[in-house]
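Researcher: Let's do a round of design. I'm pasting the structure tokens now; please hold your answer until I've finished.
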């Protein structure tokens, strides 16, 4: 299967690197474009794949088209390639936040039976530890979605979800690497406040977050069970936990994620 990426930024580059590194996809079957043909050539050369002349010729070349531009570029790009898409009928995959299957179909053509799959990956595809969700419209067959699932399984784990759950998934998987970095940075700053150099404090914090997540995935217990295991009676951890909850740590995090869900629905309008 020939796979094309419109957009060669952070996400497309991470996915392409992971696909090639997995050994399941040939670089010679991967094509891309960017905002200019010079940029596309440069990115393609770095990744060892091919640059197409422009978006229209890329669509003509591929069986699966991955739209990896920012959500505000979709209208322009789909207007540009709409008629070629209707003619060629590749599987169209969008990784944009917010844009629904119906919105995407309408941007392509009012009356097309275009196969469209929405995927929400996260930045951890860079190290092939991404978590991606997929949903599709009624024109997509089981073989089509399995083929696209393979792409994202080459860069991490995948979940098939109903579209109604996509904004929720986007908040806890698509966006949360940023919130996790914020938490790591906060731990590290506390370390600096109390006397450690920043680079060492950041490494200690990141290794601890990684190990805590790996531990949780390897036990039957819930996060709360694990919290109780770290809190010695009358000890240091429970003192910190109570102070964090005094500042409403849990509801603050939930408010942050609710804001992403609200923004997701605004992007879809
Ligand atoms: N970043 C993240 O963590 C995640 C992002 N997403 C989604 O992925 C999508 C891409 O995000 P991200 O990779 O971060 O964005 P980037 O800004 O890094 O990349 C966007 C790419 O689109 C290219 N581009 C812009 N206009 C055109 C055009 N008309 N034709 C072809 N290419 C064009 C840009 O070209 P140039 O390089 O020349 O500027 C760039 O390569 C977004 O829709 C976002 O919602 C989903 C999950 C996670
Ligand atoms: O900020 C965004 O809109 C994208 C979607 C998920 C992560 N980044």
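Researcher: That's everything. Go ahead.
Model: Designed sequence:
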């Amino acid at each position: 299967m020939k796979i094309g990426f419109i957009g060669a930024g952070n996400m497309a580059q991470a996915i392409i690197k992971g696909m090639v590194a997995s050994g399941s996809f040939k670089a010679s079957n991967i094509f891309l474009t960017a905002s200019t043909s010079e940029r596309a050539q440069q990115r393609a050369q770095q990744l060892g794949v091919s640059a197409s002349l422009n978006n229209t010729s890329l669509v003509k070349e591929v069986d699966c088209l991955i739209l990896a531009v920012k959500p505000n570029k979709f209208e322009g790009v789909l207007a540009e390639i709409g008629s070629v898409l209707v003619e060629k009928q590749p599987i169209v995959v969008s990784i944009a936040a917010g844009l629904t299957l119906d919105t995407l179909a309408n941007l392509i053509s009012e009356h097309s039976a275009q196969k469209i799959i929405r995927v929400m990956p996260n930045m951890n595809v860079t190290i092939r530890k991404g978590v991606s969700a997929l949903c599709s419209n009624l024109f997509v067959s089981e073989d089509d979605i399995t083929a696209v699932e393979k792409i994202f399984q080459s860069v991490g784990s995948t979940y098939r979800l109903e579209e109604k759950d996509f904004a929720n998934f986007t908040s806890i998987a698509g966006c949360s690497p940023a919130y996790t970095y914020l938490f790591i940075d906060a731990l590290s700053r506390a370390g600096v406040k109390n006397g450690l150099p920043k680079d060492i404090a950041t490494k200690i914090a990141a290794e601890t977050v990684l190990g805590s997540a790996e531990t949780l995935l390897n036990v039957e217990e819930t996060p709360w069970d694990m919290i109780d295991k770290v809190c010695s009676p009358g000890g240091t951890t429970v003192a910190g936990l109570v102070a964090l909850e005094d500042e409403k740590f849990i509801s603050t995090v939930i408010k942050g994620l609710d804001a992403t869900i609200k923004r997701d629905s605004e992007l879809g309008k």
